[in-house]
Predict the structure.
Amino acid sequence: RSSEALKKVALIRRGSHYPAELSGGEQQRVALARALVTRPKLILADEPTGNLDKESGEMVTQMLFDLKDEVGSTMVIVTHSNDLANRCTRKIAINDGKLNSD
């Protein structure tokens, strides 16, 4: 299952590398591969694209939503990215200490 998960996140060739040998985007994709293996019912993502360049961020975002759909998980994302928040089916914002829901 681990090898299949690494294939899905395009990292099968990096399977023998240590985390310090991977870029930030690769480390994020490894985290997604680990989640694929466990087939979680709940995915909690705190700023999943915060430290990534635009291309890596888009790749991680797509993989995150694909994982959610494939497994049928509930996903909670905490983000400052409006683009990422707009991809969600429900948004809850905190403004001046007050909750606002869409």
In short: The two ends are 37 Å apart (CA to CA).
